Amino acid sequence: MSAKLHFCDARLAEQSDRHRQISARYDLWYSLNDLAAGVLFVIGSVLFFSESTQTSATWLFLIGSLLFTVRPAIRVVQDIHLRRMPPQ
């Protein structure tokens, strides 16, 4: 690839079959992380309807928020990993 690739450039994942394979794994982790965060927020929301489960709901919201913070970290690690791989 002759053009300079910018941070998180989608073309980085297309440099080789190995790049595509590694990128697909990161995409899977990204999606699973999003799903887990969403599920925790939905369960936390339901738990907030009862005063007796509000503490549990608060913890689920906190964990869900942390998972949403992990989202960009997954992309950064993916980008670094793909850039360190030799183009084929």
Q: How would you describe the overall organization of this protein?
A:
The protein is mainly alpha-helical. Helix content is 70%, strand content 0%. The chain is rod-shaped and about 60 Å long.
Low-confidence stretches: none
Tell me the fraction of residues in β-strands, as a range: under 5%
Instruction: State the end-to-end distance.
Output: 10 Å
Radius of gyration: 18 Å
Give a concise summary:
The protein is an all-alpha fold and 88 residues long.
Features:
about 90 residues; mainly alpha; 2 helices; about 70% helix; about 0% strand
Give the helices and strands, then pairings:
Elements: H1 17-47, H2 54-84
